[in-house]
């Protein structure tokens, strides 16, 4: 199941909303560009006047005046373009920044279950490739299109005012151009998509072969991998050939239209002028206008192509916003810190329950160890208890309020899931900690680090809390990164922690050191420990045995051992290892 893609109607509605929201700056840009374009129209107009004046006989003074006006117009145009460009670039950046922020907001609040089901690849492609493609169109395309549309419209209007009779000849190239551009656009999108897909496949094959070089060697897959690379190259070559052919038809085709127009104006205008219908100056002006308009028309053609690509990306980006949330906030304040699961079921795939009606009560402050064979559903239960996924059936409540009714920020103040995966974000140590509590002051950060036994090394860093860490910054050891993650938990201060040790990747030495830090975090909280080593279970207040998606035994360690059930068998076999 992929993430949704917005329909064209939804994309149009979205783009329309963007334009409405930004009506004021857009109008300002349009006005500035209009003024600049009008200044740009002065040159050819003066040239026409000059031609007429010379033909009729004139004075040096008059010519000097015209030249002065022309110089003034060029100066005015330069200044206007400077401000118009500036405001359109600022506008493009601003809109793009807003889009990006909105997108990040959406992505970070996506239901985890949806992302997991769709695979992270899809989301990563949308946050990178699609955002990049859109970025180009929004930052450069939108401003350039405004300029081109304004310039083309004004130039055509000016020519028509000058002399409609001559100006009609400007349109001679239009049918040819429309035909060629339509022909091109119909074929361009699939052709360029095929090209991108071909290069993506080629990249994939080469990266895989290089990363798996040892496997390739060991299994003697060399020839087969070479064959795949060659096949991918052939496909990329074929795809490239198609787009190249498209371009070799488009460029001369459009150029032909561009040559046809001024030639037609010249011939038709020449005929009209020699018969005295129009002045030579008017013809000169319109020929120059016809030349002047080709630049912006080219630009429009170029951007129409780019906008098509960007629209596909926008549909994929807007699509992410269409994902239904998996929780709706409802009012309700937990009365206490007890957690209760009732008749809990969960299915990753519809109809395949991995938890079958679990009932569980956790009293505030108690420690529960969850044990059982791998695949029994321990991690799934842990994620339910931490409110990561809404249950398929039944409820998990904290102080009487279902976990999924709580807004995420509030939920994390009650229960948090701790895995041994951790991530250091690019930024300072303080930034990393403030992810948990944006308003924490330095004193609070220091206390949190002290609680996890990490203040010593943080204080010794070159800039202390202000040291840049994460990719490109000061390199932290995995254990230090884990301590930062634990300090975040202290700041978050949930009363219940679900500890999933399933992904324990740390070496035992680091693990022992971390145990101290961890104990600092666990003190005074309710703890559900999904245990893979039984000594954790031994220390807990109660032990729950999960098997086949059910709690089969639950009680204090000693009682379970005395009862002689599954847990007793597990415990004895572990002790004799
Ligand atoms: P445990 O933690 O006890 O090893 P899990 O809760 O990870 O067990 O898994 C319980 C069952 O759910 C297993 O059959 C597992 O294959 C399945 N399962 C776990 N995660 C997923 C997932 N993301 N998608 C589909 N099935 C899953």
Automatic annotation (TrEMBL):
UniProt cross-references to SUPFAM superfamilies, sorted A to Z: ABC transporter transmembrane region, P-loop containing nucleoside triphosphate hydrolases
Keyword Transmembrane helix annotated: yes
Membrane topology: Multi-pass membrane protein
Pfam families: ABC_membrane, ABC_tran
GO CC annotation: plasma membrane
InterPro entries: AAA+_ATPase, ABC1_TM_dom, ABC1_TM_sf, ABC_transporter-like_ATP-bd, P-loop_NTPase, Type_1_exporter
Keyword Manganese included in the entry's annotation: no
CDD domains named in the record: ABC_6TM_exporters
Main location: membrane
Record localization: Cell membrane
Transmembrane segments: 29-47, 62-84, 142-161, 167-185, 249-271
Residue ranges annotated for the ABC transporter domain, each copy included: 339-573
Domain ABC transmembrane type-1: 29-308
Protein name, as recorded: ABC transporter ATP-binding protein
Organism encoding this protein: Cellulomonas rhizosphaerae
């Amino acid at each position: 199941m992929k993430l949704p893609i917005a329909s064209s109607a939804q994309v149009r509605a979205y783009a329309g909303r963007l334009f409405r929201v930004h009506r004021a700056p857009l109008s300002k840009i349009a006005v500035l560009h209009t003024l600049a374009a009008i200044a740009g129209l002065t040159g050819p107009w003066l040239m026409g006047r000059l031609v007429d004046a010379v033909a009729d006989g004139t004075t040096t003074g008059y010519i000097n005046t015209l030249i002065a006006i022309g110089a003034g117009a060029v100066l005015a145009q330069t200044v206007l373009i400077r401000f118009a460009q500036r405001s359109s670039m600022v506008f493009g950046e601003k809109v793009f920044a807003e889009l990006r922020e909105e997108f990040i907001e959406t992505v970070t609040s996506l239901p985890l279950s949806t992302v997991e089901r769709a695979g992270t690849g899809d989301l990563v492609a949308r946050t990178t490739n699609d955002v990049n493609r859109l970025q180009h169109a929004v930052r450069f395309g939108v401003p350039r299109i405004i300029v081109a549309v304004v310039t083309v419209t004004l130039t055509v209007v000016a020519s028509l005012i000058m002399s409609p009779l001559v100006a009609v000849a400007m349109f001679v190239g239009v049918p040819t151009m429309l035909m060629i551009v339509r022909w091109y656009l119909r074929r361009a999108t699939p052709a360029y998509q095929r090209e991108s897909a071909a290069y993506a496949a080629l990249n994939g094959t080469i990266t895989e072969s290089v990363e798996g070089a040892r496997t390739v060697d060991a299994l003697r897959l060399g020839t087969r991998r070479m064959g795949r690379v060659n096949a991918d190259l052939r496909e990329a070559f074929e795809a490239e050939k198609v787009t190249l052919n498209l371009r070799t038809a488009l460029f001369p085709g459009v150029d032909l239209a561009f040559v046809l127009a001024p030639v037609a104006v010249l011939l038709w205008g020449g005929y009209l002028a020699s018969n005295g219908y129009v002045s030579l100056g008017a013809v000169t002006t319109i020929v120059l206008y016809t030349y002047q308009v080709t630049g912006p028309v080219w630009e429009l053609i170029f951007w129409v192509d780019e906008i098509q690509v960007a629209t596909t990306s926008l549909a994929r980006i807007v699509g992410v916003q269409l994902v239904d949330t998996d929780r709706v906030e409802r009012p309700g304040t937990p009365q206490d810190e007890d957690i209760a699961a009732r008749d809990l079921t969960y299915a990753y795939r519809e109809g395949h329950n991995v938890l079958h009606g679990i009932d569980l009560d956790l009293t505030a402050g108690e420690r529960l160890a969850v044990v059982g064979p791998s695949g029994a559903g321990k991690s799934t239960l842990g994620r339910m208890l931490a409110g990561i996924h809404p249950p398929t059936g039944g409820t998990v409540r904290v102080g009487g309020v279902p976990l999924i009714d709580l807004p995420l920020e509030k939920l994390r103040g009650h229960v948090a899931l701790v895995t041994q995966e951790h991530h250091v974000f690019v930024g300072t140590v303080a930034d990393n900690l403030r992810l948990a509590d944006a308003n924490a002051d330095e004193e609070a950060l220091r206390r949190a680090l002290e609680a996890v036994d990490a203040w010593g090394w943080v204080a010794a860093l070159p800039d202390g809390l202000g040291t840049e860490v994460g990719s490109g910054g000061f390199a932290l050891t995995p254990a230090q990164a884990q301590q930062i993650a634990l300090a975040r938990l202290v700041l978050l201060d949930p009363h219940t922690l679900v500890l999933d040790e399933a992904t324990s990747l740390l070496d035992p030495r680091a693990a022992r050191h971390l145990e101290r830090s961890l104990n600092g975090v666990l003190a005074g909280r309710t703890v559900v420990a999904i245990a893979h080593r039984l000594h954790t279970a031994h220390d807990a207040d109660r032990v729950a045995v999960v098997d086949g998606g059910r709690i089969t035994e639950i009680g204090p360690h000693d009682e379970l051992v005395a009862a002689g059930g599954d847990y007793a068998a597990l415990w004895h076999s572990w002790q004799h290892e």
